[in-house]
């Protein structure tokens, strides 16, 4: 069964006592592109998370956002007491020498370099396991969304394919009439432009047979039927890819174009145009298939 390239998944849960929410969204892309946004406490595990996502995701431009309840997070901000003591000693001397009240410069004091700092803490294996479990849940829902969208895409693709096959059958039904129409049209043109010329009907029939063989479309119809059957077989396969289906559509298009070039009949040409229209719809839809 096919999957859509676009998808969405969301999961929320507690990670180390903190409420964490993960969202996964994807759009069309020829390759896998991962755009990962992590809160500061989990950034030391970014490469581990990326490696996991690379294994479980397929094609598409995937945006992954992990957010957490900031009110439950320890900011990790600490006062650098050694640097602060040095600054205070110097500022006291400066204030005493210039008659400045120490209280007046406290806001500026807090802006001095190295007064405060962030305590770096590594994500424990237990915390990362909980985060990975939440990630797996979001990816699971994301894949369910892709599968549902893929089911809708498959119905549209098969409907267009059925229409192409129906038009091909009509072309086959009109093919015998085409041969007689061509024969009558050429014969009338010869008779109207060659009043003083005797037509050798045996030679005429030989040349006509040679011409009709050149514009015969039976071989193209057989190959088209084979390609359509193969497309229908592949679209139900468990490991089918949009790229493979796109290649099959190229072959279907090649046969339709050849039939159009050989049509030489207004009724058949209209059917060919309808087949091309449905084929273009399929090509547009295939771009959304994973």
What does this structure look like?
- The protein has helices at about 45-55, 80-100, 105-110, 125-195, 200-215, 220-235, 240-265, 265-285; strands spanning about 5-15, 20-25, 30-35, 60-70, 75-80, 115-120.
- With about 290 residues, it is α+β, with helices and mostly antiparallel strands.
- Helix 4 packs antiparallel against helix 6 (about 220-235) and helix 4 (about 125-195) packs antiparallel against helix 8 (about 265-285).
- The radius of gyration is 36 Å and the shape is elongated.
- It starts with 6 loop residues before the first strand and ends with a helix.
- The mean pLDDT is about 80.
Any descriptors?
6 strands; elongated; 290 residues; alpha+beta; 4-stranded mixed sheet; single chain; 8 helices; 61% helix; two-stranded antiparallel ribbon
Question: What is the residue-averaged pLDDT?
Answer: 81
Q: SSE order in H/E notation? A: EEEHEEHHEHHHHH
- Terminal-residue CA separation: 10 Å
Instruction: List low-confidence stretches.
Output: none
Q: Largest beta sheet: what is the strand line-up? A: 1-2-4-3
Q: Using DSSP, what is the number of strands?
A: 6
> C-alpha Rg, in Å?
36 Å
Percent of residues in helices: 55-70%
Gross geometry: elongated
Beta-strand percentage range:
5-15%
């Amino acid at each position: 069964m096919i999957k859509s390239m676009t998808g969405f998944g969301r999961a929320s849960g507690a990670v180390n006592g903190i409420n964490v929410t993960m969202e996964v969204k994807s759009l069309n892309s020829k390759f896998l592109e991962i755009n990962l946004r992590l809160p500061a406490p989990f950034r030391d595990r970014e490469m581990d998370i990326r490696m996991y996502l690379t294994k479980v995701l397929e094609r598409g431009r995937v945006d992954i956002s992990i957010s957490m309840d900031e009110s439950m997070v320890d900011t990790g901000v600490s006062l650098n007491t050694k640097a602060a003591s040095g600054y205070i000693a110097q500022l006291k001397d400066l204030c005493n020498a210039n008659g400045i009240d120490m209280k007046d410069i406290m806001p500026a004091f807090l802006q001095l370099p190295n007064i405060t700092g962030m305590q770096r803490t590594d994500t424990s294996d237990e915390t990362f396991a909980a985060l990975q479990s939440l990630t797996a849940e979001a990816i699971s829902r994301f894949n369910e969304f892709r599968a549902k969208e893929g089911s809708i895409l498959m119905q549209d693709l098969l409907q267009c394919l059925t229409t192409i096959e129906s038009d091909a059958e009509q072309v086959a039904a009109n093919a015998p009439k085409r041969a007689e129409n061509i024969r009558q049209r050429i014969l009338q043109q010869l008779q109207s432009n060659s009043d003083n010329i005797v037509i050798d009907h045996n030679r005429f029939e030989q040349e006509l047979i040679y011409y009709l063989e050149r514009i015969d479309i039976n071989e193209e119809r057989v190959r088209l039927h084979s390609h359509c059957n193969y497309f229908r077989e592949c679209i139900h396969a468990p490991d089918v890819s949009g790229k493979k289906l796109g290649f099959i559509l190229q072959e279907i298009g090649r046969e339709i174009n050849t039939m159009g070039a050989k049509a030489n009949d207004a009724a058949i040409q209209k059917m060919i145009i309808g087949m091309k229209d449905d084929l273009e719809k399929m090509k547009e839809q295939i771009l959304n298939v994973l």
